[in-house]
C-alpha cells in the first residue's frame, strides 16, 4: 500500500486493534483450518479487506471501530473457510483428528471459562469442570452462548456487544446477565 493519508489512518487503526482481532480469529477458526494456516494469516487477509472497505470503516462514527474491524475479520474468515475447505484439492476434513463437531478452537476458550468457575486444585478437577462446561453449553440457547463468547472470549465491552448484535446497549446488558444466570443455574443443577 502507498502512504496516502487514508492508508496511514488504516494502519494506525489496525495496529491499535490487531492483537484483539488475532485472538478473536484464533478462537473462532475451526481446527481443520488451523492445520493449514494461522490466525495471523487470516488477520493479514482481513487487513487487506479493510483497505478495500475504507468507506465502511469511516462511516457511522457511533459504531465502535473494533466492531467494524471485527465484522470484516469474521467475513474474511468465512470467505477463507469456504475457499480452503471447499477447494477441490485435498480434502481438508480428512486432515482433522477431532471427534466431535463442536470440539474446535472455541472450546479452548470455554475451557478457560470453566477454569474460572472455582479455583482448580488438581488437573482432574479442571478436566471435570471443562467437561461440565461443554455439556452445559450444549444446553444453552445459541443467543446465550453468543453473548457469553463476545464478553468473555472476545473481551468486548457492553456497547461493542450491542453493536455486534445490532441491539440497544441496555438489551445487550440484560441478555448478558440472563445468559450468565442461566449458565450458573445449570452449573448448580449439574453439581446436584
What is the terminal separation in angstroms?
59 Å
Query: Per CATH, which architecture of the largest domain?
Result: Orthogonal Bundle
Tell me what portion of residues adopts beta-strand conformation. Answer: under 5%
- Unreliable spans: 96-102
Whole-number radius of gyration?
Answer: 19 Å
Instruction: Kindly report the CATH topology of the largest domain.
Output: Rna Polymerase Sigma Factor, Chain: A
Helices and strands, in N-to-C order? HHHHHHHHHH
Shape descriptor reads globular
Main sheet: strands, sense, barrel = none
Structural write-up:
With 192 residues, the protein is mostly helical. The protein folds into two domains: 5-95, Orthogonal Bundle (Rna Polymerase Sigma Factor, Chain: A); 105-191, Winged helix-like DNA-binding domain superfamily/Winged helix DNA-binding domain (Arc Repressor Mutant, subunit A). It is built from ten helices and no strands. It is globular, with a radius of gyration of 19 Å. The relative contact order is 0.11. Mean pLDDT is 81; it is low at 96-102.
